[in-house]
């Protein structure tokens, strides 16, 4: 019998090591996606099952929902997830499976379900109360009343500003220009302070609402874009160009919570300028001449206003999408305009 040579021993060692790694990296478990619906409503229950095709001996399973541990099991029974109270949007499911006496579990993380709104939105109608001139060179990003005066913010690098103006004539009382490096976005006024976002610069500004002098600069505490803003007198709501609306603490500038904006069939992407009206958030949708009426507690779209007919009355050659919502509580009317529009409309909305 010949003794194995040195090269053969090396080859055998490589095969054994490779085989060991392969076995270590092998996945034994997966979610049974055939038993899971793509979408659920908050009053429904999702059934989750982890498959074990090779019949491994399972010691225990720990389940996580959106990276938060919610239950431990001794075996791979079908798990029911009650979706009551869960946020709208995607719910990511993960399981850590301990098996065959191993102290290191196998992670199963390919599970995801989507929770949609249970509300069927109502369509609202409107009447035009007045039509006013609007600067057709203004790339409107934010619009809000401060006392009886309108404040408007605009975008574009090198041309971003916000100003107080007479909406009846278009005359600007005072204007503050942003440094050319910033692309201005939405504004809101709370506690006699004007908050202003920038698009991709991760920076916000705070001004004295009476003097319009800058008092502070703050950085977003998440890597998101700045789009629209509004407030309920206590918290600021901040859109980021997706279906997400963030809640921001005006004192710490921290993003403390969020909602996902959904209809009964899908998420509503690209939420833009925001306005708080009678306990609801009215939101422009980028590239749509429609305003969504949003429940701030859940993110459900409860109503919609189609303003595409107003777009047809705009004469500006460069007119773009509807953007800009300001509520006048004294008259209970809403002022709307758009990017590069030569008109601003005062409307009254009803179901």
Number of E-state strands:
29
CATH superfamily grouping of the largest domain: TolB, C-terminal domain
Q: Which whole number gives the mean pLDDT?
A: 91
- Total of helices: 2
**How is the largest sheet built, in terms of strand order?**
23-24-25-26-10-29-28-27
What does this structure look like?
This protein has about 350 residues and is mainly beta. It has 2 domains: about 30-115, Immunoglobulin-like (Sandwich), CATH 2.60.40; about 120-350, 6 Propeller (Neuraminidase). It has helices at about 5-25, 310, and strands at about 30, 40, 45-50, 50, 60-65, 70-75, 80, 90-100, 105-115, 120-135, 140-145, 150-155, 160-165, 170-175, 185-190, 195-200, 205-210, 215-220, 230, 235-240, 245-250, 255-260, 270-275, 280-285, 290-295, 300-305, 320-330, 335-340, 345-350. An 8-stranded mixed sheet has the order 23-24-25-26-10-29-28-27. The protein has a 5-stranded mixed sheet with strand order 2-9-8-5-6, with no helix packed on it. Strand 27 (about 320-330) and strand 28 form a beta hairpin. Residues about 10-20 have low confidence and may be disordered.
């Amino acid at each position: 019998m010949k003794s194995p040579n040195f090269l053969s021993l090396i080859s055998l060692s490589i095969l054994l090591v490779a085989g060991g790694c392969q076995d270590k990296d092998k996945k034994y478990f997966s979610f049974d996606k055939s038993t899971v619906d793509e979408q659920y409503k908050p009053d429904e229950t999702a059934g989750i099952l982890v498959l074990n095709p090779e019949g491994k001996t399972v010691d225990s399973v720990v389940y996580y929902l959106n990276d938060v541990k919610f239950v431990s099991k001794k075996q791979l029974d079908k798990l029911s997830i009650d979706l009551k109270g869960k946020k709208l949007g995607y719910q990511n499911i993960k399981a850590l499976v301990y098996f065959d006496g191993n102290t290191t579990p196998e992670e199963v993380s390919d599970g995801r379900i989507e929770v949609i709104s249970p509300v069927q939105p109502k369509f609202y109608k409107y009447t035009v109360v007045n039509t006013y001139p609007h600067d057709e060179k203004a790339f409107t990003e934010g619009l809000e009343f401060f006392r009886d005066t309108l404040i408007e913010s605009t975008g574009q690098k090198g041309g971003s500003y916000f100003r107080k103006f007479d909406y009846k004539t278009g005359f600007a009382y005072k204007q503050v220009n942003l440094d050319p490096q910033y692309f201005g976005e939405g504004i809101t006024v709370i506690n006699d302070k004007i908050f202003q976002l920038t698009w991709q610069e991760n920076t916000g500004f705070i001004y004295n609402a009476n003097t319009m002098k800058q008092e502070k600069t703050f950085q977003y505490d998440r890597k998101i874009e700045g789009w629209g803003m509004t407030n309920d007198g206590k918290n600021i709501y901040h859109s980021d160009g997706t279906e997400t609306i963030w809640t921001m603490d005006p004192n710490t500038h921290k993003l403390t919570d969020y909602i996902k904006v959904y209809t009964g069939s899908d998420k509503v992407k690209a939420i833009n300028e925001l306005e708080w009206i009678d306990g609801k958030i009215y939101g422009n949708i980028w590239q749509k001449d429609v305003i969504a009426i949003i429940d701030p507690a859940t993110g459900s779209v409860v109503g919609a206003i189609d303003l595409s007919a107003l777009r047809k009355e705009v004469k500006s050659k460069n007119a773009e999408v509807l953007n800009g919502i300001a509520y006048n509580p004294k008259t209970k009317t809403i002022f709307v305009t758009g990017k590069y529009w030569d008109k601003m409309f005062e409307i009254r909305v009803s179901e």
